[in-house]
Each structure stands twice: as C-alpha cells, then as structure tokens.
Amino acid sequence: MAEKHLGLITPEWHRARQQLVMPPGHTQIEVYADGMEVGVARCSAVQAARDAGLKYLFFIDWDTLIPPDSLLKLCYFLDNNPDYDIAAGMYCMKSIRLSS
Q: How many CB atoms lie within 10 A of CB 11?
C-alpha cells in the first residue's frame, strides 16, 4: 500500500499558528487527526466541537499561513452579523493560466 502525503508542517506555519490571538471569552480545544483522511478528520472535529458545546469551529490546513488577528476578525464578524453562519478569509491559489 502506498504512503499518503499528509502535508508538512513548516516552521513558518508553526510560528503563525502559535501567534494566533484567541478572542476574549472563548474556550479553545485542539483536535488532532494524525493519519486520518481529511473528510473523516473534519467530521471528528465537528463532533468534538459539538460535544464541548463550542460556539465556533475553525479549520486551518498545513498549507495556509494566517495573520495573528484572524480569529479575532472572524469572531467579531460573526458576533456582529447574526444572519451569517460561516465566515472565512480570502484564500488565493497559484495556478497556470491556460489560454484558449
């Protein structure tokens, strides 16, 4: 059976994760999903958040670096816009543009 590539945590990713500012009054738990398929891992995280009675769930993947104030801004937006159930940051992707 071939090995699956699970992503590589870089020093830059780890620093960005460590610098995330937790919004005041919010409880944090981390769900580890080492070796799990991504869909199964996310479902496991959703269940853990529900079991803990958390207000928000935040996913960050191994290939995404985010600013330290990201959680503050996302929670502020959701707290002040009750008609929204989901908030996300801008995610840009490099690709090769093919001309037609």
A: 7
